Give the backbone structure.
Amino acid sequence: MVKKKKQVHEEVREPIQGIFSNEKVIAGSCDLARELYEKSRLGEPFHKDKFQYSLVEALYLIERGKMQVISGRTILNLDKYLKKARKLEPNFWTRYNVYKDMRNRGYIVKTALKFGADFRVYDRGVKPGEDHAKWILYPVLETEMETWYNFSAKNRVAHSTRKKLLIGVVDDEGDVTYYSVSWTKP
């Protein structure tokens, strides 16, 4: 007896249409944008009927076929998008590798500019607004030199915001190793 495989029909949805605008991507509100925000906090509601995405969030969605980004009259393919993002942020690729790795591990990752860090990371199952971020995260390239002064400043920011410091070190292959740093009283 031969068993027939069940065919799973996944609904094909139009990707979110985003517009490259300065250092972010702006998109109109659509079912997919609202769903991704509600489910995993991708993007941020912006005005009544729009969402804004950080450059790393937009690339994450582009890679998954969930977003198209337009600049001027051109739909940006992956290479053109990366070129524009790297022009704005020289360490974009390092930041993106850390962002993508954390997202793939099930964490919600948001920007942390107001904390003086690259990202804030929420524990699995926690959404921004429901609880506070557990870590602030700084992506660094494995070959970069870091001074004790800069390291101390990062640790102080984490401590003053009551978060744990997480350093994401990206190697030449794009793999990420994480180091958690915390204050200790002897």
Summary: Residues 12-89 form a domain with the MutS, DNA mismatch repair protein, domain I fold (CATH 3.40.1170.20). The helical segments are 31-40, 55-63, 78-88, 92-104, 148-160. The chain has five helices and eleven strands.
